[in-house]
């Protein structure tokens, strides 16, 4: 996979720290805004990226690039992904995928027409611990309660209170706790239990944006409570999957899943960690690089269908308040 990166924000910096651990990944280019041109040049020098651009079209037209990683503010995902696809590039688009189901379907139609692959970059469902948790559900079933908690006091929250609005707190740029943090919880819930029957979101609104909130999702026999907060502190947040025969729980970010505990009735709890990488983003990009190099459309279609189901939940949540 020969990668071109659009964006130079925090997530790009984070990804580049583990890019050299990913098999069959070559960093070809990075495109930034003119304002961030020096940031792009510094990243290129530090991580051995061949080309730097300040016009995305130049990256799209780079013949060495076969895949574009879309890492821009949420509201720009659709147009950047669309332009990359139309230029003949595979696309890896940061979460949340796009704003609407119809946008996702339009991107998929373009990708299919051109024989390209498009996927959403979401860490947790690609982690080995997620796959083992899914399998271990058999030991605690039937499950009745799902409680996922992603509370992370935002480094930009104090600025937000003072009126300095970063994209993650900007309603015009699809910011907010639901899009930024609860999206991880939704991916886990849909990945484990498929589509819910009912969805209702209860947000805390400040300055027109949800700085925290609880998303309730009802399944047949299962009630799910998905908590996300950018305005509160707890250390560490703990998440539970509760069944009649036992409980699975984990601490920390639902986006990292760096361990989990299986506690069966009348037995000692056992803690597990099957993740093979220390960085949460390595597993997903390993999967993407392999699927793109092998042009595994069957696997990419499976991931896309999952992302589409998540978008449907997100749409219901936004429509419910």
Automatic annotation (TrEMBL):
A Pfam family that the UniProt record links to this protein: GFO_IDH_MocA_C3
Domain GFO/IDH/MocA-like oxidoreductase stretches: 164-248
Residue span(s) of domain Gfo/Idh/MocA-like oxidoreductase N-terminal: 2-118
InterPro entries found in the cross-reference section: Gfo/Idh/MocA-like_OxRdtase_N, GFO_IDH_MocA-like_dom, NAD(P)-bd_dom_sf
PANTHER family, per the entry: PTHR43054, SCYLLO-INOSITOL 2-DEHYDROGENASE (NADP(+)) IOLU
Protein name stated in the entry: Oxidoreductase family, NAD-binding Rossmann fold protein
Organism: Lactobacillus intestinalis DSM 6629
């Amino acid at each position: 996979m020969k990668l071109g990166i659009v964006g130079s924000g925090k997530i790009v910096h984070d990804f580049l720290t583990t890019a050299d651990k990913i098999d069959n990944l070559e960093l070809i280019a990075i495109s930034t805004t003119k304002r961030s041109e020096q940031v792009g040049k510094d990243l290129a020098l530090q991580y051995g990226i061949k080309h730097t651009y300040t016009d995305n079209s130049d990256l799209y037209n780079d013949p060495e690039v076969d895949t574009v990683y879309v890492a821009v503010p949420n509201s720009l995902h659709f147009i950047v992904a669309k332009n990359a696809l139309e230029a003949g590039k595979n696309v890896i688009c940061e979460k949340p995928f796009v704003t609407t189901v119809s946008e996702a379907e339009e991107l998929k139609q373009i990708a299919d027409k051109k024989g390209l692959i498009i996927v959403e970059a979401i860490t947790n469902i690609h982690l080995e611990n997620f796959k083992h948790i899914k399998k271990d559900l058999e030991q605690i079933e039937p499950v009745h309660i799902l409680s996922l908690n992603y509370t992370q006091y935002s480094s930009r929250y104090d600025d937000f209170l003072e009126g300095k609005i970063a994209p993650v707190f900007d309603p015009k740029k699809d910011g907010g706790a639901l899009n930024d943090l609860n999206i991880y919880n939704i991916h886990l819930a849909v990945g484990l239990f498929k589509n819910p029957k009912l969805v209702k979101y209860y947000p805390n609104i400040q300055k027109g944006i949800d700085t925290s909130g609880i998303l309730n999702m009802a399944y047949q026999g299962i009630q799910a409570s998905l908590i996300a907060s950018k305005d509160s502190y707890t250390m560490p947040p703990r998440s539970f999957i509760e069944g009649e025969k036992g409980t699975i729980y984990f601490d920390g970010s639902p986006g990292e899943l760096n361990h989990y505990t299986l506690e069966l009735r009348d037995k000692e709890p056992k803690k597990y960690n099957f993740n093979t990488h220390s960085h949460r983003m390595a597993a997903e990009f390993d999967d993407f690089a392999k699927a793109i190099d092998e042009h595994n459309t069957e696997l990419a279609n499976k991931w896309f269908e999952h992302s589409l189901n998540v978008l449907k939940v997100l749409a219901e949540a936004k429509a419910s308040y």
